[in-house]
Design a protein that fits this description.
By secondary structure, the chain is mainly alpha-helical. Helix content is 33%, strand content 5%. The protein has seven helices and two strands.
């Protein structure tokens, strides 16, 4: 009897968790993450030794891995733009138009606090904690835009929707609960 009471108390305390994490990406494994290991670049002799950066504690090294810059270069971009600060010349008009009615300098902190509050109110339930399930989609479902309803709302107005299929080609049959992606049928 005591064991059952102790077990019920432990389950009750586990259900009262205020952990705002909705994604369960660990899946209970205890092995190392193979994607966290980044190989270093091969050692090479620079053509000009005066071009080497001054050694500083915590500073960058020429053999340090740069996965973001490597991905940008692999996709045909300019990795040097990752270090660019401020607003680019092409986006100046957009920024001035978007901030025409004023802007709040701390908006990112405010939205981050509101999101943590939302996640703590819509966190995992007892059985979801025990089953280690992902509740991200359930928690944010009230904020999800129904793309098919928007498509049907805009279609009668005559607005061109180049990314949408023509009327009558695809209809939504069902929604897969795993990822809320619509299943299309002809």
């Amino acid at each position: 009897m005591r064991a059952i009471a102790l077990m019920m108390t432990m389950l009750g305390l586990a259900a009262c968790s205020t952990d705002p994490h909705l994604m369960n990406i660990s899946s209970g494994r205890s092995s190392p993450d193979e994607f966290a290991i980044l190989p270093t670049k091969p050692l090479t002799m620079p053509t000009d030794l005066s071009a080497l950066p001054a050694p500083t504690p915590g500073g960058a090294n020429s053999t340090d891995p740069t996965p973001q810059a490597d991905a940008v270069a692999a996709l045909g971009g300019n990795p040097g733009q990752l270090a660019a600060q401020g607003v680019g010349a092409a986006d100046g008009a957009l920024i001035s138009y978007a901030s025409r009615l004023g802007r709040d300098a701390g908006i990112r902190q405010v939205t981050a606090e509101e999101d943590v509050a939302w996640r703590s109110r819509h966190s995992r339930r007892l059985l979801e904690v025990l089953a280690r399930t992902n509740v991200y989609y359930r928690a944010y479902e009230p904020m999800t835009l129904d793309s098919w309803a928007e498509l049907e709302r805009w279609r009668p107005t005559g607005v061109l929707l180049p990314s949408a299929p023509p009327a009558g080609v695809a209809k939504v049959e069902a929604v897969r609960p795993a990822d809320n992606a619509p299943v299309l049928r002809d």
